[in-house]
Design goal:
single chain, 128 residues, alpha+beta, Ribosomal Protein S5, domain 2, 4 helices, 5 strands, elongated
Amino acid sequence: MEMVNALGRRKSAVARIYVTEGTGKITINKKDLQDYFPSSILQYVVKQPLTTLNVAEKYDIKVNLDGGGYTGQSQALRLAIARALVKINADDKKALRVEGFLTRDAREVERKKPGQPKARRRFQFSKR
């Protein structure tokens, strides 16, 4: 198997990944997965597509993560991994689709409007 690349986005986070055959090592911005995401919940989110297909120890993944916060980054990485696994084996698409790992969550932060404190919040109305 040659190198397979994929892209995942969530909020303002972008994950570009490169998958090769290996031992299950995930490197994010030249750091190990446990160092980049100390939270076990975020590590679980990243590994969800791999554990669903039981291929966690089969591929090495090199990741360039940019933008967003840690939650958005972990979910962008999950989408990228799922897309790469589908590129490797198209038969896995149904299992990943059922779990919802191939759906791009398109929700973005709404912009702040002028004359308001936040995007939708308005200053208190005073009649007198």
